[in-house]
Design brief:
The complex is a heterodimer.
Chain A (H helix, E strand, L loop, with lengths): L1 H19 L2 H25 L9 H32 L6 H22 L1 H4 L1 H28 L8 H22 L4 E2 L9 E4 L2 E4 H23 L1 H11 L1 H6 L4 H27 L1 E2 L3 H16 L4 H23 L11 H15 L14
Antiparallel strand pairs in A: 1-4, 2-3
Chain B lengths: L1 H22 L5 E3 L3 E3 L5 E3 L7 E4 L5 E7 L6 H16 L11 E2 L2 E9 L9 H12 L4 E6 L3 H15 L2 E4 L17 E3 L4 H15 L4 E6 L3 H16 L3 E7 L8 H8 L5 E3 L6 H12 L5 E4 L6 H7 L6 E6 L8 H15 L6 H19 L1 E2 L5 E4 H9 L4 E2 L4 E2 L10 E8 L16 E6 H4 L1
Parallel strand pairs in B: 5-7, 5-8, 8-9, 9-10, 11-12, 11-13, 13-14, 14-15
Antiparallel strand pairs in B: 1-4, 2-3, 4-17, 6-7, 15-20, 16-17, 18-19, 20-21
Helix pairs in contact in B: 2-11, 3-4, 5-6, 7-8, 8-9, 11-12
The chains are: A mainly alpha, B alpha/beta.
Amino acid sequence: MGTATEERQERGAQLGRLERLPWRKIILIVLSILIVSIVAIGAFRTLTLPPDQRYAPAAWRDFIVLGVAQGAIYALVALGYTLVYGILRMINFAHGEVFMFGAFAAFFFSDAYERSGFLDANPWASIAIMLVVAMLTSMGVAVLLERVAYRPLRNAPRLVPLITAIGASLFLQNSARGFFGAQTRGFGVPTILDGTWTVLGLTVDRIQAVVLLTVVVAVILLSTFISKTTTGKSMRAVAADSEIASLMGIRVDRVIVTTFAIGGLLAGIAAVLFSMTFQAVDYTMGFRIGIAAFTAAVLGGIGSIWGAALGGISLGLLQSLGPALILTGYAIPSPFQLKDAFTFLVLVLVLIFRPGGLLGSGEAEKV
Amino acid sequence: MKNRKYFAMWALLGALMLVAAACGDDDGGETGGGGGTSATGGVVDCAADEFGCVEVQAGEPILLGGILTISADTAYLGTDAQHGVELAIDYLDGTFDATPGQLLGHDVEFQVEDETGTGGVCSTDGGQAAATAISAAPDVVAVIGTSCSSAALGVADQIMSDKGILLVSPSNTNPGLTSEEAHEPFYARTAHNDKIQGAIVAEFVFNELGLTTAATINDESPYADGLAAAFRDNFEALGGTITGIEAVNSADTQLEPVLTSLAQGEPEAVYGPNFPPVCGLTLLQGADIFPAGTVFLGSDGCLETSFVGQVGDPPADYYASSPDTTAFQGGDFYSNEYSPAFKEQYGTQTSVFNAHAFDAANVIFDAIEAVAADDGSGNLTISRTALKDAFFATSGYEGMTGIITCTPLGDCATDVTIGIFKYPHWDVEGGVEPIKPVYSDTKSLDEVI
C-alpha cells in the first residue's frame, strides 16, 4: 500500500517538474535555432553557388540600394500610421488613400509640366511645386478624414473607429476611381533625375539618392519637431495620457488634428517620391503601399518614430534582398514571387519574439 | 407560447408561398419538360435534355449574358468586347445603324456582369461572382465571356457547364482552358489559343531579331503564365536559351529587384506577357537595369491605351504581339464597315478582342437559329444541349477574324494570324502612324500542339 502511494507521489512530483519547465521559452529557443539555421543555410548555399549561377557583387549592391530606397518610402508612410496610433491608439487604415490623393495631385502638375516642357526646363522648381501640392492635398484629406470620420467616434469602443477607417479607405479609393478613372497614369520625371550619381564610391540611381536624402531630412525634422517644439511636446503629452494632458490645459482636439496634418504632409512627400520612382499612379496604389507601411510600422514598433523608420527600411530590404539571398539557395524557382509570403513570415516571427516590434516595448498590446 | 405563435405564423406564410409558387404561371424562363418544333423543322424534346430548355415568349427578348471586366485596370478589355457584341446585335438587320436588329423576331438583350475582382483586375473571385450572378438568370440563353482566363479556368467555365449554359470567350487565350484535362463541356472560345501566339513570338525573337537568349517574367494570371510557358517551349525548341524565369504579382510596383535578378543571366530579350501596369513598369524599370540593346516584349494584354499613357517615349525597344487586324479574314468588311461603325459609336478601339466578340455573338446567333423551336406564335424553345452541340458543330464559318471551326475541346480560332507591333506604332489611342506589324505569321492549332 505504502509503496503504491509513494509511486503515485513520485509520478506527481515528476509531472510537477515537467509543468514547471519554461515551455514557452524552450519552444521559442528551438524555433529561433531552426529559423536561424534555415536562413544561414539558405544564405550559405546562395553565396557558394557555382560562379556562373552566383549573383554578381553589383547585383547585391543593387538589391541593397533598391531595398533601402523602397523602405525609405514605406517609412514615410509608416510614420503616419505610427503618429496617429501613438496619439489615438487607433489604426488609420485610410492613410494609404491620403497618400494616393497626394500622388494624383502631383500627377496633374507633373503631366501639365511635362507637356509644356516646364518639367525639364525647371526640374527642381517642378519637384518643389509637386511636393507642396501633394503635401497640401494629403494634409487636407487627412484633416478632413479626422474631422468627418473619426472625431465623432472619439469616445466609441476601439473597434468602431477601426471599422470606420476601413470604410473610409474604401470610400476614398472608390471616389478616386470615380474622379480620376481606373487606368494607370504615367508620372513624368525630370530628365535631370535620369542616370546615376556616385556617392562615397557607391553608384546609386539619382532618383534613389533623392528619395533617401528627402526621407532622412523629413525624419530628422519630424523627430526634432516632436522633441523640441511646444506642439511636439503637447503631442507627446497627449500620447502619454490624453485626460491628464487635457487637465494640464492642452487642447487635445487641436493636437490630434495637428497629428493627422503631419501624417498627411509626410504621406504627400512619400507620394511624390513613390510616383517619381515607379512612374505610375493609380487609384489602388494607396491600398498596396498602406498594407506595406502598416506592416513596417508594426515591424518597427507601432507608436515609435524611429521604429517606423527602421521597420520601413527592414521591410524594403527583406523584400529586395530576402528572396535572392535565402530562397535562391534552396533552388526555389522564381523566388521573387514568394516575396510577400517571405516578408510576412519574417514579420510573424519578429512579433513572436518581440510582440511590440523591433523598437517597441517588447510586450504585446491589444489593438 | 409567444414563440410558438410566431412559428405557426411563419409556417403558414411559408406554406402559402409554396402554394403560390406552384400555382403561378411559368412566364418564360427555363423549363425541364415540354417541347416544340425547331426552326429547322425538328422536334425539341426538353425532357430528354439534362439541362432543359429556355423558353422565350413572343415579344420577349432573347437574353444573352456577358461576363466581362468592365471596370478598373482591365476595363479596356471587357468594354471593348461588350461593344463588339453590341455591334453584332446592331448588325442583325444587316446594317450598322446604331439600332439593334432582331433574331427570329425577338430583340436580343445583352446583360453584362462585371468580372473585375477585388484587386482591381479580372480574377478568380470576380469571375465566380459574375458567373454565379448570370447563371442565376433562368432565361439566359448563352453567355459571352470571360475577358480573362483567370476568371474562366475552373471558375466560370465550370459554373456554366454545371448549369448547361454555353459560355464563349472572345479573349481567353490560356491553353489550359481547352486542354484534355481541364476543358469544360459548355466552354468554347473565338479568341486564339496562346500556344499559337507563344510560338509566333518565339519565332520572331529567334529568327527575325536573331536573338538566342531570353528571359520571361509573368504575373500570377493563367494568361501570363500560359503564354510565357508557350514562348519558352518554342524558343528552346528553336535552339534558344532561356536564361531566367521569374514571376511577380500583378499588384507589384517595384520590379527592380526581380529584374536585377533576371539581368544576371544577361538575356538579349525579356518577354513579359502581362497586363498594365506591370507591362509598362517592366519596360520603364528594366531599361535602367538591362544593358542597352536589350529588347522588351509583351503580348496582347499589354497592347492597349494605358501603356501609352504610362510609358510615353520608349526608353528601349518594345514589341507586343496581338492578333493581326490587318490580316483579318473580314478584310474589306472589317476596314470599311465594322471599324468605322465602331469608331463612330464608341470612339477608338482599345483592344482587338471586340472583333472576336463580334464573331462569338454571330456564331451564337447562328446556333440559336439552328436549334430554336417556334410554336408558330413566336414563342421560342431552345434546348441547352442542342445549342451547345450546334455551336461546337460550327465548321468553316467565315468570321470577321478568320475561318471559325470549333474543335471538340472548344477552340474555334484554329488558324490564327499574329502580328508583332513595335511600340509606339500600335492601333490604340495615342499610337503613332504607321500602324502595321513588323512581323506577321499564320499558324494553325495543329501545327503547335
